[in-house]
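Late entry, pyridoxal-5'-phosphate complex.
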Amino acid sequence: MQKLIYLDYAATTPVDPKVLKEMQNYFTINGIFGNSSSYLHTFSLKARNIIENARINIANIIGSKKEEIIFTSSATESINLAIKGIAFNYLNHKKKNIITSFMEHKAVLETCNFVKKLGIKIIYIKNSNKGVINLNILEKKITYQTILVSIMHINNEIGTINDIIKIGEICKKNNVILHVDATQSMGKYSFNLKNMNIDLLSFSAHKFYGPKGIGVLYIKNNKKKINLFPLLHGGGQENGLRSGTLATHQIVGMSKALSITNNLINKEKERITFLKKKLWSGIKNIPGIYLNGSLKHSSPYIINIGFKNIFNKILILEMKNIAISTSSACNSNKYHLSYVLKSLGLNNNLIQSSIRISFGRFTTEKEINYTIKKFHFIIKKIKKKYL
Ligand SMILES: *Cc1c(COP(=O)(O)O)cnc(C)c1O
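Prediction complete; structure with ligand written out below:
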C-alpha cells in the first residue's frame, strides 16, 4: 500500500509522542490519578499541584493570569460557555444583541442560533470576498444594546486572518465584551493577552498536538467584570463555572503540547510558509484551478482551492492516499455546502469543487512534491473519465 499523507491538520492533529509519554503518568495506582478536588490527602494534593502547574504554564504562554484559565472539554464547550454564559444573563432584556460573522465555526453559529430562540438578537457582519471582517461595518453595528461580539481569529476553512487587535480596540472603545475563537491560531501565533483587548478566548489542545477532549476558556479578569452563567452545575470546580472532576492527564497533555508547539512557532511558520508556497506554485497552472480567500492575508497552515467542474468528493476519493477534505468536517445536511465559501460570494458549483488542504508539524517537502504530482495526474485522469 502507498504511504498515507496527512494534509488535514486543521481538522485535528496527531498527539506529539512526548505529550503522550507525559500523559501516561496520570492514570494508574502508580501514577498521579487522584481527584484534584477531593480532600486533603496526598493523592488529591498531588493532582491539584500538577493541574495548577499546567494552568500556570498555559497562562504564562498566552500572557494571562492563572485565574483567567478555565478548563473545558473542547473549544466547542468553551465557545458555548462564553456565548451562553453571557447571553443567559440577559434573557429578560429582549433588546439585547450579539454580533458575530457568517464565517464563524459551527460551534459559534449554532450557539448563537440557540440563544436567538431565547430572545437574544443575533447580528451578522458581512465579510469581504477575501474572507476578512470589515472593521468599519463592525463598528457601525455596535450599539448600546450589544452585549457581546464573537469573531474568530483564523478561519478554519480558508485560513484568513481577522485583525483581532483592532477588533479588540473597537470593542473596548464601545465597552462591549469580545469573544475570540482562537482554535486555529493557538500554537501557531504568539498571544500576549495582557496587552490585548480580548475578554474571552476559546481554544482546544487537539489542534496543536495535544489530546482530544480538552480545551480552555480564557476569561479576562480586570475592572470590567465578566459574569458568566455556568452551563454545568455540580461540584463547583473552576470557580463554579465548570463543574466536573478535572482531567489531570488531559490538562497536563495540553500544557505540554502548548509548550512544545509554542517553542516551534517561528521555525514552523517559516517552514510551512515555504511548503504552502511550494504547493501553490506547483499546482497553480493546472487548468481550471482557483484559490479561495487570500494567499497574502492568510495563515500558512491552510489553503483552500478548487478545480472548476470537478466535484470535490470525487477529487478527494481519487487522491486516495492523500488526506484532504471538503472545507470543514461536515456532519449534517444543513452544512452540505460550505457557508464560509458562500460568504465569499462563491456559487454552488465552485463551492462543491473546493477543497481544504492544511499542513502541520509532520508535513515534509517530499510529501508536498508528491502531492503536486498527484494533483496533476488526478485532474487529468478525472477530466478524461468524466468530462
Ligand atoms: C476545531 C475548531 C473548533 C472546535 O474545536 P473542538 O475542540 O473540536 O470542539 C472551533 N473553532 C475552530 C475555528 C476550529 O478550528
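The longest helix spans residues 365-386. Will revisit in the morning.
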